Amino acid sequence: MKRRTFFAFVAPSVVSMVVLIALPLVGVIYLAVHQSRVQTELTEVTTSVPLFGGIVREETRIVPQPVLGEDGRAIVLWEFVGTDNLRRAAEIDGLGDVIEKSREAGSIRGFIAALHREITDADFWSALEFTLIYTFVTTPLILILGLALALGVDRVSKRARGTMVFVTLLPMIVTPVVSSLAVYWMFLDGGVIPAAISALGFDTFYFLGSQGTIRTVIVAYGVWFATPFAFILYFAALQTVPQDPLEAAIIDGANAWQRLRYVVLPHLAPITAVITLIHVMDAYRVFEPILVFGSRVFANSVQYLTYYTLAFEDNIHKAAAYALLTVAGVVVLLVPVLIRTYRDQRAGQ
Amino acid sequence: MTKRVLVAAVAAALPALFVPSAALAACEVEGQGEVNVISNFFETLELLGQKMEECEGDGVTVDVKLTTEHRPETEQAFAAGASPFDAAAVANSSITMLQAEGQLLPLNDLVEKYRDTYNIEDQMLIRFGEDIMAVAFMVNAQHLFYRKDLFEKYGIAVPTTWDEVLAAAEVLEGAEEVAHPYGAAFGNSWELANEYVNLLLGNGGDLFDPVTSEPTFETPEAIAALETLGALFEHMSPNAMSMDFGDVKRQLQQGDVAMAILWGDQAPTMDDAGESTVVGQIGFAPAPAFEAGGVPSSTFWWDGYVIPKNLDGDPDLTFQVIMHALSDATVEENNDTTLWIRSNYEPTSYTEAITETVMQGTPPYPMNPQASLAHSAIGENIADFITGSESAEQALADAAAAYRAAARDAGLLNE
Amino acid sequence: MKARLSPTARALSSLGLGAWFVVALLPFAWMFLISFRQPVDAFSTPPKLFTPMTFQNFIHVWVEDAFWVYGLNTIIVTVATMAVSLTIGCLAGYALARYRGALGFWLLIAALVFRAMPHVVLLTAYRPAFFELGIWSRYETLIVVLVAINQPFTIWMLRAFFMSIPPELDEAAMVDGCSRWGAFRRVIIPVMWPGIVTAGLFSFLLAYNDFIISSQLMNGDMATMTAALGNYMGQNQSVERLMHGIAGAVSITLPIIVLVYAFQKQIVAGMTAGATKG
């Protein structure tokens, strides 16, 4: 394809991405390397606070109050801080101490355990820890389950196929906030699943009570939520498996497993790469189940950390720093894919 | 579904369809334009939102956005060049940041202009020095909700101190009627920090030094407060660290717990057979104190409306719309909805525990910008102690470090 | 043709599909069930299977809260996002599948990184900018943002589909006198339907399910259904409101169910069309 034609074809898409993703990204970098604050001075202020029945409580306190500019608005100071925000978000300065401290543990195992404990005490690293666990546990599971489902559904009758596709789509198409809640309610105290377990004669089981179980529930939700995605792409790709080699394999007496292993799977390799790539990125941004399952104590994610910093701490600069670290993490994660794509690209030239 | 339920459903829906149109004539505002309001989402604010929308007509449009994400949206809108929101609902905690950043429009002139028209009472006005920054309409505080029937059966007196709460929990631990003795919202870090702040202030502690903004997180009072939370957790559902306010409220309504600390304005819902299985069995008492006769471990809150300096609409019109919603008539028609500030409010048995809690000396939630930073730093870090992975001292030291970083970023702490 | 499997394998396969069927459906079935209940029964402990039913939750959401307004917003935003997204995505995806220059590679890499941006962060940049420009809370704004955010995914996916179409096809068309544009429109697009259906489905879902962006960029009455729903779900004080939210959630789910059911043939056919064309 000619370069000019290429430009013409990609122009609308590229413009939309530049204006609404790249420019905001530049804005985020700008925010991350700056610090802003309202100029304040300590002032003695008497506040009156209403009670009820006409009683008002007055209180005199020393409070930082804004210094107002000529236009009556507060004066906001902007300051370039370089990598300060990033360093603090990653708690890099603390890492040296952490390693020093962990060394005292003596044995290598003790060192790793101590290091893990210290590092996961830092917000970003603990969020990253669970994000990676979530990503790398769900990825193989959705690939296997998705493929198994696709193979299974591919074999059933036409009518059953429609129903299966439809039901399988559900966990994926229903709004994640809603589906997270629907799953969460099943695990609550006295929810359907604990109640079923109790009814079977086992002790009451508290799914949301410890780190291990709550993380398992979140990962299970992730698999349940993302398997349909793998299924759809596999199912579509299965339809394009060339029939000739399959027939040849059958005539040669290959069994089902051999046909799958030597004919079908190689054909599915490219789509597997796409599924993996997209799922890894989506999983890395996991948000809704963390929000809904609530417990940041037990499981956090980098996207939720950014959201929380922004929404509840109202610290735009720190949030921007977390966001950049998140993107850096994605780039690292994607390096193998990038290299592969690059090779394919070179080979294709 | 039975016919009766259908009839009840229609009957419940009908008045709501007709009341607004009947009251529509009552809203008379002067001016033209759009009024956009953002507010939190709970029953009273929803009611006030509907009242505001009554003012629509003749060149006036009113749009009220009710969202639980109101805080970041309000903060961003008020910090922008022009705020698309002409007013926002705030409470003690959320007003402080907005006020400390100089984003609020002083309402003194508007209050004077409309004082008689809307019978604006002095007790509704939130002042920072000379400036009137908000018009408040309700107050609220957390207090103790308990099962009267179980307390009677097991011969427990209504606890007034935390030691008594723990003793009662000990007795109830084996009770077959409930799964767990105690419930409180530990699952959401903001709510968890709120529980802690209640205990800390009740124990005579403080979050920070107001002059230097230095945290005072690691005092004996603070450690005692945190250890009390830890002791209470022993008597809660093992899932408690994942259960937010709504979950705890349902626990009590479903008879899963025998006592809980909840927001006072939720008291009437305990006797609503549509959502509660313990109708008539819940008693309300002031929040417990650390010592007999001490200050209840709670804070009291007000809710009100503010107008930003950078609004893109007309402040005069906006103010009229707000005041229409906060009129005497609203309070009269909806007396039982909440604890209104207006003097024509008639107290009910459901709000007694709130007033008692406040009258026994519970402080207002601190209206300093440092408090909201301290609050989130604490919420982030103390769970490590409650779940047993850190000591109280360590958890509070982590919280202090997080607070310092946030206060430095906000320019409140110089190092 | 499909070769036969051993009876054990077939039994296992049916069992697996059956298990998945239950697991996929259970949370929604339960939600559907409790949406017709009073709050007291919906979250009873232990859960009950049979309780009195009521339509109150649905009546409240649709009549008193005028949920249909949000429904209308959703239709506008979803349809427009899907149309624009697929149009510009197909153009770019096709070009990326056929162009051999290094630029294409870098574009894909950039798209990958863009896709990784947490939406929350993009929002911090959008909001002040849209406030200043006065384009906040407008359909066009939300549509354009959703299209842009969806582009990286769309072009990657469509490129993968276009790559599976042999280049000889368009080359042959061009030899026959078609321009590149003509070959794309007349020869490639007709065999691309499976890919377009799949990509369209994902575009639709993104716009339909988006919560963070819609809820933050739109004012009260301009919100989409999903964004409006977040308000019911996020607020945890009133169980009654939560029940309205559940009724709303079921209401949101039903159109998708109907849609997927109505277009089931097209979706499955779209997904399987490659077999006959390939």
Outline:
The complex is a heterotrimer of chains A (about 350), B (about 425) and C (about 280). Chain A is mainly alpha-helical and about 350 residues long.
What does this structure look like?
The complex is a heterotrimer of chains A (349), B (415) and C (278). Chain A has helices spanning 3-32, 84-90, 92-103, 108-119, 123-155, 158-173, 176-187, 192-199, 211-238, 243-251, 256-284, 288-293, 302-311, 316-348; strands at 34-38, 40-50, 56-66, 76-80. Chain A starts with a helix and ends with a helix. In chain A, a hairpin with a 5-residue loop joins strand 2 (40-50) and strand 3. Helices cover 70% and strands 9% of the residues of chain A. By secondary structure, chain B is α/β, with parallel strands linked by helices. Chain B has helices spanning 3-24, 43-53, 70-79, 92-100, 108-114, 148-153, 162-172, 189-202, 220-233, 245-253, 315-325, 328-333, 352-359, 369-381, 383-386, 392-409, and strands at 33-39, 60-66, 87-91, 125-128, 131-147, 180-183, 257-263, 282-285, 300-306, 339-340. Chain B is globular and about 65 Å long. Chain C is mainly alpha-helical. Chain C is globular. Chains in contact: A-B, A-C, B-C. The interface between A and C is large, with 106 and 102 residues. Strand 2 (40-50) of chain A pairs antiparallel with strand 4 of chain B.
